[in-house]
Amino acid sequence: MREIVRTLLDGGKLSDELKVELKKPGEQVRVVVFYVGKDTDELSLNYKIKHLAPETISELLVYGVLMGEAHKMLQMEIEFCRGATGAFGEEKEDVMLLSARAQNKSLPTILCEEESVKGVHGASVGRIDEQAVQYLMSRGLTRMNARRMLVQAKLAQGLSKIENEKLQESVKKRLETVEYNYD
Amino acid sequence: MKRGLTKELVLELSQRKKDPQWMRNLRLRALEIYQELPLPSYGPDLSGLDIDNIATYVEPKTAMVESWEEVPAEIRNTFEKLGIPQAEREGLAGVGAQYDSELVYHNIKQQIAAAGVVYLPMEEAVKSQQMIKVNGKKQRIATVVRSHFMKLVPPADHKFAALHAAVWSGGSFVYVPEKVAVEIPLQSYFRFNAPAAGQFEHTLIIVEEDADLHFIEGCSAPRYNVANLHAGCVELYVGKNARLKYSTVESWSKNMYNLNTKRVTVAAGGRVEWVTGSFGSCVSMLYPMSILAGEGARAEYTGVTFAGEGQTLDTGLKIVHAAPKTCSFVDARSLAKDGGSCTYRSKVKILKGAKGAKSFADCKSLMLDNKSRSDTVPLVEVSEPSAEVGHEAAVGKIGEREVYYLMSRGLSEIQARALIVRGFTDDVSKELPVEYAMEMNNLITMEMEGNT
């Protein structure tokens, strides 16, 4: 499957856009995005996948962490055009909010004008599980390291979705360099 | 009555209703706001709506009556077809029926009145000197109305809120005192019956602390060639630990523009349950909004929208979590067939400080053929890290295997599909009293089998 991976770890005022059109029957694409927002970062993400042909398959998976006063807006769109019979599209977002001043906006959209398709989307916004932190601390980790471990585990979910091993490895290395500061 | 929306028309309307000065001022100010505001920049095309050509008020043929028998035959027949007499007989508590913008029939059963429950036509409530206790203070109903009317939905909120405030007519005022549980659902039935008439009824409901009410709003209208507009407004106040269930089944005729505004504010520990079945209108823009203002407040929304031929139904909801430990659950289902277009449009907003808030939404869309559209546009805004928010949606079609199985059991293909669709909408129909559930199922069957 064609894989497109984006790692948006540098912050700042960042805008990322991707449009994919699946025009050939049976065409498939997987888009995996990792982002980290901190301080006063502003992230504006816009990903659109358009199914134009039958039996096309798409996966759009977005994993992120927001700290400090970061603001993020994610618009994900799956569009099933007439004629895309038997198509399947999935969009999923998983966000972790680490600070009280961060702001998260998500707009997971599905547009559909073809009857025999299957589209699913899910978005979930959460925080670090305090009980898990306590458990890891009881095992000897500092609070800082326990939290870091849980944040990385969340992002690692996305890693496991990447089929290409070299790609997976390089993303993993990049994620490990991120500093997670908490408020 | 002159057509067209002018200051003179609003003044004439206000004088005819013998509005107090504050209401007259509100109407005039709202008219100005209406003229300034643009049409919404999203959603269905509203260009087919010609407000100036819509008479805002049509004289009813009768004055208000106390008992069903006194209602004129022609009007009674219309309501007979919609099943109101049965509902009355079966003990549903007071019925306010609207005929062309005026309440013609209003009846409060003694047991409800004895408990201190107030159910008045809105025009009467504006002037009523009866004393009730709201938020611990004894006040006249007229004073309560003045301090609540168009406060939850201010006229400047959007163009059709302003229009409503300028030309509102008819509707209900309901007050449930502290600790009173109204066992029978209160219902109000609307009916359009004149060409180019606008429906602008106002509903104001106050449910005091620890009280409990189920209010049903159901409407129906025949087919006409001229654009019909429904721009009503519903303002609901749910007190501490109180519960309000607000059910609506609407099957407005297919030339209607349904641009109703509904909003509720829920105090600490309170709960609002929205149950909605939207089947009618040619264009709908309906987003009931829940403000969870007190700690532990809760909102539940169960809805089904069915867009058939020529219909563009843009429905959804808004929920604002403005306090800790608030929670919201959404189960929204939509169907589209015969070229209909259905959009689910929502906004769930969790404000900073709403610690431990939880929100979960599940939207399912069923495409019934290859000519229709179903779009899902859910916005989630979270500014509180301890909040947990989940949103799931799915779009698909009826499984062929399920259809085949039912056909093997003797149903025709149409019957099989209708049965599956009724199953899909079951979550809504089981929340409604039997009368409404049956009407809803009939509406679905009619849609599926192609009769109207």
Give the helix/strand layout.
The complex is a heterodimer of chains A (183) and B (452).
Chain A: E1 2-8, E2 13-22, E3 28-37, E4 42-51, E5 57-66, E6 71-80, E7 88-97, E8 103-112, E9 118-126, H1 130-138, H2 143-159, H3 165-176
Parallel strand pairs in A: 1-3, 2-4, 3-5, 4-6, 5-7, 6-8, 7-9
Chain B: H1 7-16, H2 21-36, H3 73-81, H4 84-89, E1 95-99, E2 102-107, H5 110-114, E3 118-121, H6 122-127, E4 131-134, E5 137-140, H7 141-148, H8 159-167, E6 172-176, E7 186-191, E8 198-199, E9 202-207, E10 212-220, E11 228-230, E12 233-238, E13 243-251, E14 256-258, E15 261-266, E16 271-278, E17 283-286, E18 289-292, E19 298-307, E20 312-321, E21 327-336, E22 341-350, E23 358-367, E24 373-382, E25 388-397, H9 400-408, H10 413-424, H11 426-429, H12 434-449
Parallel strand pairs in B: 1-7, 6-9, 7-10, 8-11, 9-12, 10-13, 11-14, 12-15, 13-16, 14-17, 15-18, 16-19, 17-20, 18-20, 19-21, 20-22, 21-23, 22-24, 23-25
Antiparallel strand pairs in B: 1-2, 3-6, 4-5
Helix pairs in contact in B: 1-2, 2-8, 9-10, 10-12
Name some characteristics of this structure.
heterodimer; A: 183 residues; alpha/beta; four-stranded parallel sheet; 21% helix; B: 452 residues; 13-stranded mixed sheet; 12 helices; 36% strand; globular
Tell me what you see in this structure.
The complex is a heterodimer of chains A (183) and B (452). With 183 residues, chain A is α/β, with parallel strands linked by helices. Chain A has one domain. Chain A contains three helices and nine strands, in the order βββββββββααα. In chain A, the strands form two sheets. In chain A, strands 1-3-5-7-9 form a five-stranded parallel sheet, with helices on one face. Chain A has a four-stranded parallel sheet with strand order 2-4-6-8, with no helix packed on it. In chain A, helix 2 (143-159) packs antiparallel against helix 3. Chain A starts with a strand and ends in a 7-residue tail after the last helix. The mean pLDDT of chain A is 90. Chain B is an alpha/beta fold and 452 residues long. Chain B folds into two domains: 7-286, no CATH class; 399-452. Chain B has twelve helices and 25 strands. Chain B has helices at 7-16, 21-36, 73-81, 84-89, 110-114, 122-127, 141-148, 159-167, 400-408, 413-424, 426-429, 434-449; strands spanning 95-99, 102-107, 118-121, 131-134, 137-140, 172-176, 186-191, 198-199, 202-207, 212-220, 228-230, 233-238, 243-251, 256-258, 261-266, 271-278, 283-286, 289-292, 298-307, 312-321, 327-336, 341-350, 358-367, 373-382, 388-397. In chain B, strands 3, 6, 8, 9, 11, 12, 14, 15, 17, 18, 20, 22 and 24 form a 13-stranded mixed sheet that branches. Chain B has a ten-stranded mixed sheet with strand order 2-1-7-10-13-16-19-21-23-25. The longest helix of chain B is centred in the N-terminal third of the chain and has 16 residues, at 21-36. Chain B is globular and about 65 Å long. Classes of the chains: A alpha/beta (183), B alpha/beta (452).
